[in-house]
Amino acid sequence: MHQPTRQSRTAAPNSNLCLLPLLLLTLLAAAGCVANRYEAPIGNFRDQTQATISVLGDFYSSRNSYELDLYLQGIAADNSLPVQTVDAHGKPTPLAGTVFSPASIKARLDALVLIGAYADRLNDLATTDAPANFQTSASLLGQNLSSLDVTFKQLQGKSDPTASKYIGPISDLIGTIGQMFLEHKRDELLAKAITDGAPAVDKILSQMRDDMDNIFSLEVISGANERLATLIAAYNSDREKLNFDKRTARLAQIKTATAEVAAAADSAPAGLITSMMGTHKTLLQFARDKGKARINSLAALNRALQQWTTQIQTLAAEVKALIH
Amino acid sequence: MLKVDTTTLADIVNQCFAFASDGRFNLQQQKALLADGKRLRGLLLNLLSAQFDDGTQAVLDANNQLLVVNNDLANAAAALANVAKTLGDVADLVGNLDQLLNVAVSFI
Fold first, then answer.
1. Which residue from B minimizes the CA distance to A163?
2. B57-74 b/e (C-beta count within 10 Å ≥ 16 → b)
3. What number is the ipTM of this complex?
4. Whole-structure pTM value
């Protein structure tokens, strides 16, 4: 058996000492990797969520203005039609009343804000080691969430049958976000927050997608077709009185309206929600997986985030065509 | 709660707008189809959120009428061959749906 010499016996501790900083660095790096495994995907998830809710928020906010534009364009296109606040059949026109109740639009915007707050809080948790520092923003968020819950309960009382579907998941999500501030273990907290919050987030997004399919999609598709038919009728009626420049201008409007018909048929707002739901599902899988499975789920999450990023750019342009 | 078949109604609205710029219909017919399409769309926006008591006969009748009219409009050749009937059926539908709003229980 090799016996260490005096020199080698004394050299061994020295070499261990030399390795200590390297060991410490490795440990720190490993700890950093563990601590930050959520940071990039959740930061990206937060960014895309904010981009998506911004587009959807603009879409919801513009519904009544869209209907008013459509009404006024119909008036402009037919000089036999007077401007009215109530039509000959006794129905309020978009000039007098709102086609979609402001309370219902606000409820949907608030639900979007809540999804955004959820993504923000996840990001806060993923990017700091001190969840306790969230307390300052927690009380403000708590107030907002509580008032949202109240808003939906009031809407339910004011004969909005859709609002009741949001109450359960919103209450659940409020509980999840609130709990995020009470715990201090970030990784566990994130996995728990994502896992616990997922059903509520999914329910809210599913409800929104159903809204898009059953209400807003029918509105924008028929609205785009009305605009196109109105412009065509006006052109055909006036064309003999128009000079070349005016005909060209009118035909350019018809071309734009045709693009709007195509954008409406693509159901871009519903597509955005579907993309968000798909990415959230992969985030949930990532939070649930352990060991090697987690490597695969991280790759799937990153792919979903990348696809979502690309889709937002395309769909946002299509949604913009539906906003007036 | 009972709802009007707004998906079928939206199909009818879109078909009216399509026929309103279809050269096989004369200008007067196109104008009538555009006007009916606009009225039906106005009703659609109200009916999207309208709810009715279960078993309301007027809603059940309206949903049947929607299917019949939609089926007739889907066949452009038949709609053209019987254009007077087509326009009459659409106008009749407008009147019935208009009445329906009076018995709705709630709106969004």
1. B108
2. ebbeebbebbeebbebbe
3. 0.95
4. 0.77
